[in-house]
Design goal:
alpha+beta; disordered C terminus; 4-stranded antiparallel sheet; 5-stranded antiparallel sheet; 4 helices
């Protein structure tokens, strides 16, 4: 009687474990390149851009990450990450650039360079967060070419798709975001909130991912333990029923 139940339990556990393996493999493939995740894409708003830094030079640890800002951005505020030092690189304009509010600037931040205090192991990931003021250009795609330097070699994540080209055909695509229509409300009023939550966002990419897979593993383990517990409970009930019934009727003397 216990064999069918055991078979069903093991089959369900194997199926769940197989799904977990497939999900983990998909996540590994998706995180094999430097990508960017914005907390918002509303044109004209203040946003936090989280760059996920995986292995980029095979088995060599990462020592530096240089993120180039698109021409549409004039500045970016790097979030403090205890594992890295951050430096702004500026460029001077040949002529002053006029801003939408009527003011002019003569230089802009062209690049943010993060240097690892301890080289990032190829077996680990990290998240680097920039606070930016997105341009008021709904529908525009902003690219952030990123140079990942390692102890041995480097990877230049700067490829941009041509018209009609499949992004999956690129070996080292540049991280990018596409702006959406501006949301209601005052975008400038969100600046304080954006800066206030920057520290929490710094761990969103890697921390949330780790927690997700931990939860998935716990779920699979729970399914296996639950099946085993059900099997033990059923066996215990049969044994108890046998004890209550006692020995069969004896013959008359």
């Amino acid at each position: 009687m216990t064999t069918p139940l055991l078979r069903r339990t093991l089959t369900a556990s194997a199926a769940a474990a197989g799904s977990a393996v497939l999900l983990l493999a998909a996540a590994a493939g998706a995180s094999a390149h430097v990508g960017v995740t914005p907390d918002k894409t509303d044109a004209g708003s203040y946003a936090l851009l989280t760059f996920g830094i995986p292995h980029g030079c095979d088995t060599s640890p990462t020592t530096k990450v240089a993120i180039t800002l698109p021409q549409e951005l004039n500045d970016a505020q790097p979030t403090v990450n205890p594992n890295w030092t951050a430096e702004k690189v500026t460029e001077q304009f040949a002529e002053p650039r006029k801003l939408p509010d009527g003011t002019s600037i003569t230089k802009r931040t062209s690049q943010i360079v993060y240097t690892a205090k301890t080289p990032l192991s190829p077996e680990l990931r990290d998240a680097l967060v920039l606070s930016v003021h997105l341009p008021d250009s709904a529908g525009a795609t902003l690219h952030f070419p990123t140079l990942q330097t390692c102890e041995s070699g480097q990877t230049d994540w700067s490829q941009i798709t041509a018209d009609g080209q499949d992004p999956h055909d690129l070996k080292a695509p540049a991280p990018s975001i596409t702006l959406t229509a501006a949301a209601g409300g005052d975008a400038h009023g969100a600046a304080g909130a954006a800066h206030g939550t920057s520290q929490a966002a710094a761990v969103t990419d890697s921390g949330a991912e780790a927690r997700s897979w931990t939860g998935l593993a716990a779920g699979v383990g729970g399914l296996v333990l639950g099946g085993a517990a059900l099997l033990r409970s059923k066996s215990a009930r049969r044994a108890e029923a046998g004890d209550v019934a006692g020995p069969g009727p004896a013959g008359n003397e």
